[in-house]
Design brief:
The structure holds three protein chains of three kinds. Chain A has a single domain (22-52, 66-245), classed as Glutamine Phosphoribosylpyrophosphate, subunit 1, domain 1. Helices cover 38% and strands 24% of the residues of chain A. Chain A has helices at 22-33, 82-103, 109-122, 171-180, 188-202, 230-252, and strands at 37-42, 45-53, 67-71, 74-80, 134-141, 148-153, 159-162, 164-167, 210-218, 225-227. In chain A, strand 5 (134-141) and strand 6 (148-153) form a beta hairpin. Chain A is globular. Chain B has helices at residues 23-32, 37-40, 114-134, 142-158, 199-202, 204-210, 217-234, 267-270, and strands spanning 63-65, 68-73, 76-82, 85-87, 90-93, 99-103, 106-113, 165-173, 176-182, 188-190, 193-196, 242-248, 251-254. Helix content of chain B is 30%, strand content 25%. Chain B contains eight helices and 13 strands. By secondary structure, chain C is α+β, with helices and mostly antiparallel strands. Chain C is 29% helix and 28% strand. Chain C is built from five helices and twelve strands. In chain C, strands 10-1-2-11-12 form a five-stranded antiparallel β-sheet, covered by helices on one side. In chain C, strand 7 (122-130) and strand 8 (134-140) form a beta hairpin. In chain C, helix 1 packs across helix 2 (102-115) and helix 3 runs antiparallel to helix 4 (175-192). The chains are: A alpha+beta, B alpha+beta, C alpha+beta. Chains in contact: A-B, A-C, B-C. Chains A and C meet through helix 2 and helix 3 of A and helix 2 of C. Chain A: It comes from Micromonas commoda (strain RCC299 / NOUM17 / CCMP2709) (Picoplanktonic green alga). Chain A: Its main location: cytoplasm. Chain A: One of its GO terms (cellular component) is cytoplasm.
Chain lengths: 253, 280, 237
């Protein structure tokens, strides 16, 4: 029991002397180690992208998805521990269904984000549970205003709205790239290409194989959260990979 | 005043919550049973007890729809009903869409209690959203919807709290045409033609006489209109404002409300009691 | 009927019936808002328990409710709905506090009525105006179904005026026309339904807010086979 923080990191119920809850910090580390997830809010919708790392060659392509709808008007992309992210999504689905069964309408974005933040926060308060090792990006079309919104939910229970955000491995480089985009003017069709490019370029070659998952909720998708249609996604990913190879070739020259 | 939990839950089961799954709900449920304790106190000097006696779960319908007809034909299946909902014998709501789309290959219609049908539709919407969240483009087939509804109806009748409806489910998927019904106690069957409610007596004899599975859409529609007319003439809770919905491999279509022509001009209607004055 | 109260208490049986089942309530849309109307009689058996009751209750600034059936049930449903909707407004960070979506209020009310249908006898009308969908009227009759209507009626008195209303309803009425139409309908119901009576209350809701009005019997159109109403102070004076 020596060294900084030692003894204070065994439970979320104990603060360290300098005011940290180490278990939450460690949970964030788990998020940082997972594949990249990014979200871009455009003029006509939101695009979510994930770099899904493939530890084995024999995995069925397209399985173990990291992005999924939680209702027709909302979807999530998870980074960090996949099972934890899945649990968060499952809870989000219940919240959406529960709201609709009582109020008769789709859940508003703010209420969904708030309820999910509360849910995550509950796991930072008790000795008997472990904070989620996953953070999720939440893309919603608010049913009342028709506006598209992007939220980030973190293991601490923190919840913020963003124009663009990246989490997971290589997030810093990805965030820099997202910041360079003209988010207010860009359409989702363009953003899909950018998202694919950012995922492909920030991918660490030391890592094994990966799949680039893309989903959106925008006017083109009828205001519903869906996978980006295969032809558009494939083209964006192929273009991104071509550009990367060209760059590599230039570097080699 | 605490709401009974009735929402669909994929883990717990369709439409109802059994004991032992959710302790919080069980506790709630017992609270909701409060009137039972009044049985014991009946007549023993507990004032302010309105209606003591056993708690009644079996209800009765308030706002009701009547007959639904359905038949298969060469390219698919069609169902038809009027757009009326009655409050007792008052014709209360005259523009109710009694046929609902469930998903891209299934439609459903009902007789009986309107609010219970709304609830059933909300269950199906929830189920459809669950499907949607898989994001793999697959949907439940009409016979799967039917099967699900059979479980819901039977489950609720086992709680002595039935959903007061007969439902007709129709659809086409994977080249199979489906037409099935389920009643308020869970009784269910499939057939080439069906009727729920009063139409069982008025329309099915006509179907039995004239219906074939390979009839053209035109013939089927004409037969359907004949059946609707038969019901209209002899069911007091029916009105001349109908919708027909059809499902084919190509998709699903619910018609605008329309009328069927009637004939009241028979010579014998003019003075029916001429030769028997005072008869009806 | 046996109400489980010892006869020794000596309460007249008719006073032990449930309060208020007879009523006339209605609501309709007009081109810029909605009008809700109701009579003011609350009875306990044949006894008029309250001759000036208010059956139009505020749920939010822009959504009001007409209540029929058991007074106790509807008051409590109304309180529950109000609570739920206000809480929802806070949770969703509504930028117009006090305002709510009419459809949302109607839906919550329907859920309460439907999920507790074997315990409640409550027929309600929800009407209001909101920025999203303008004027709206919803009927929630006994079983807990929900129907959006141009106009709807409720209570025992409605049986006497449905024909009149079907016949004289016009879409796109002005506010004055709508108010006059509802006053006429309710006065007809009062004239034949023993369970309806007293004054006519109106609530008109539009973009700028809600206004209450009251019309005493002397201001009702004169019904067939009745005498013109004389005000008491006129006799005294």
């Amino acid at each position: 029991m020596s060294g900084i923080g030692t003894g204070y990191d065994l439970s979320t119920t104990t603060y360290s002397p300098d005011g940290k809850v180490f278990q939450v910090d460690y949970a964030c580390k788990a998020v940082d180690n997972g594949g990249l997830a990014l979200g871009i809010k455009c003029s006509d919708g939101v695009v979510l992208g994930v770099e899904k790392l493939l530890p084995f060659k024999m995995l069925v392509p397209g399985s173990n998805r990291r992005i999924a709808p939680v209702d027709r008007h909302a979807g999530m992309a998870g980074a960090g521990l996949a099972p934890d992210a899945r649990q968060i999504m499952s809870r989000a689905r219940s919240e959406c269904a529960n709201y609709k069964s009582f109020y008769g309408d789709k859940i508003p974005s703010k209420i969904l984000a708030d309820r999910m933040a509360n849910y995550l926060h509950m796991f930072t308060l008790y000795w008997s549970v472990r904070p989620f090792g996953a953070a999720v990006l939440l893309a919603v079309r608010d049913p009342a205003t028709g506006k598209y919104e992007l939220y980030l939910l973190e293991p601490s229970g923190e919840c913020q709205r963003y124009h663009g955000m990246a989490i997971g491995k290589g997030r810093q480089a990805a965030k820099n790239e997202v910041e360079k985009l003209k988010l207010g003017e860009m359409s989702c069709l363009e953003a899909v290409k950018e998202a694919a490019r950012i995922i492909v370029t920030t991918h660490d070659e030391k890592d094994k194989d990966y799949e680039c998952e893309l989903a959106w909720i925008c006017d083109d998708s009828g205001g519903e959260f869906k996978k980006v249609p295969k032809d558009i996604a494939d083209e964006a990913i192929a273009a991104a990979k071509r550009a990367l190879e060209d760059d590599d070739a230039m570097d080699a020259d | 005043m605490i709401p009974t939990r009735v929402s669909h839950n994929p883990i717990i089961g369709p439409g109802v919550v059994p004991f032992g799954v959710d302790p919080a709900y069980d506790a709630q449920y017992k609270l909701n049973q409060a009137p039972r304790s009044h049985v014991a106190s009946h007549g023993q000097g507990k004032p302010f007890t309105v209606e003591p006696g056993p708690h009644q779960r079996t209800q009765y319908p308030y706002v009701t729809g009547t007959t639904v007809l359905g038949c298969k034909y060469k390219d698919g299946v069609m169902i038809a009903c009027d757009t009326l909902c009655c409050y007792g014998s008052t014709k209360r709501y005259k523009s109710v869409e009694r046929i609902k789309k469930v998903n891209s290959s299934t439609i459903i219609s009902f007789t009986g209690e309107l609010s219970d049908f709304h609830y059933i539709v909300s269950l199906l919407e929830e189920l459809d959203t669950t499907d949607y969240c898989e994001d793999d483009g697959s949907e439940l087939a009409p016979w799967e919807i039917h099967s699900y509804l059979c479980r819901v109806m039977y489950n609720r009748r086992n709680k002595f709290d039935p959903l007061w409806n007969s439902l007709v489910v129709a659809g086409v998927k994977h080249g199979r045409t489906f037409l099935g019904t389920v009643g308020m106690i869970g009784q269910h069957y499939e057939d080439s033609h069906l009727a729920a409610g009063f139409g069982n007596h008025m329309a099915r004899p006509l179907f039995r006489e004239k219906h074939t599975d390979d009839m053209s859409e035109e013939d089927a529609r004409k037969l359907m209109e004949d059946c609707l007319r038969a019901c209209l003439m002899r069911d007091k809770t029916m009105m001349n404002k109908f919708q027909i919905a059809k499902v084919t491999a190509g998709g699903l279509e619910i018609s605008e409300p329309f009328q069927v022509p009637m004939n009241w001009g028979y010579e014998k209607f003019k003075d029916p009691t001429k030769h028997a004055v005072g008869a009806w | 009927m046996d109400y489980g109260v010892p006869a020794a208490l000596g309460v007249a049986p008719e006073l032990m019936e449930e309060v208020s089942t007879g009523t006339t309530i209605m609501a309709c849309v007009y081109d810029g808002g909605v009008v809700l109307g109701a009579d003011s009689r609350t009875s306990t058996g044949n006894y008029v328990a309250n001759r000036a009751s208010d059956k139009i209750t505020q749920v939010m600034d822009n959504v009001w409710m007409c209540r029929s059936g058991s007074a106790a049930d509807t008051q409590n449903v109304c309180a529950f709905v109000k609570n739920a909707v206000e809480e929802h407004g806070i949770m969703s960070g509504s930028d117009e506090p006090g305002m709510a979506d009419v459809k949302l209020v109607a839906n919550v009310t329907m859920q309460i009525a439907y999920r507790n249908k074997d315990r409640l006898s409550a027929g309600m009308i929800i009407a209001g105006w909101d920025r999203r969908a303008g004027p709206q009227v919803f009927g929630i009759p006994l079983g807990g179904s929900l129907e959006k209507c141009d106009f709807t009626l409720g209570g025992s008195g409605s049986a006497y005026i449905t024909g009149f209303c079907d016949d004289t309803w016009k879409p796109g009425m002005s506010r004055e026309e709508a108010e006059a139409w509802i006053r006429r309908a309710i006065s007809i119901a009062i004239s034949r339904d023993a369970s309806s009576g007293g004054v006519i209350r109106l609530v008109t809701i539009h973009e700028k807010g809600a206004e209450k009005q009251m019309f005493e019997p002397a201001q009702h159109p004169l019904a067939y086979d009745e005498l013109p109403v004389i005000r008491r102070e006129e006799v005294v004076a």
